[in-house]
Fold this sequence. Notes:
Elements: H1 2-20, H2 31-34, H3 64-72, H4 89-96, E1 115-116, E2 122-126, H5 131-136, H6 143-154, E3 163-166, H7 180-197, E4 201-205, H8 207-213, H9 220-223, E5 228-230, E6 233-238, H10 241-246, H11 251-268
Parallel strand pairs: 2-3, 2-4, 4-6
Antiparallel strand pairs: 1-3, 5-6
Amino acid sequence: MSDIKDLIEETKKQLLHLQALGVEGVKLTDQLETTTIKPATAKPIATPLRVETRQPVPPSRQPISSTVSGLFGNVAPTSETLRASTETFELIHEEIGDCTRCSLHQQRTTVVHTEGNRKARLMFVGEAPGADEDIQARPFVGRAGQLLTKIIEAIGFKREEVLIGNVNRCRPPGNRPPTPEEASICKPFLLREISVVQPEVIVVLGNTAIQNLLETRVGVSKLRGTFQNYKGIKVMPTFHPAYLLRDPSKKRETWEDLKKVRAYLDSTAK
């Protein structure tokens, strides 16, 4: 009887542990504790029998991973890495063509493609072109782009040494952020370019770029300053240069973020 009580207590502890891990559908009940087990009346046996009994293994002695795996299958995290692509930018841009896949084409002047070094170790990704970019068909050439160029030079690179692009290639009306639908239509082309270049670090600029590339709802204020991961590529979230023009006090934090990027690239330089 004491062995059964011990087993019940061990089982309850295990269930509490699973609940703490976030496993749903596991409920505790006191029914077992109130169940009375009456021993059977012993009866004489003519011929002695040898009966081998196996003591049940208390749940606390079983690896927690095997218990969770039994409930939900293999829950071990997978390490997904970005596959190298044999595509070229020319083929990707040709496929984009005079894009009319979403409503942004109705008011845009040009499609603004990613530009820069196609063997770059460092890439910058924003949300969408602005008015200047729409006219010149180049990313980050307006006031925010000029500030980005200064930031790139401040960490020891030239603009032509890095890769610069946006989640969306057409200017949204009034420079508003792209809608989730607009971003979902255009983003795959950016991801294909990333697969071609395989940069060591991607700096994502502002909430729209961060949330689309990393597929998260967390904003820049919480993620900035810490390397994130996109399929094995280091990702540094930081403020968009346009935001820095509105709030220059954030330039110091952005500078700290970019110094970490520079230090990482220095540590992996061949």
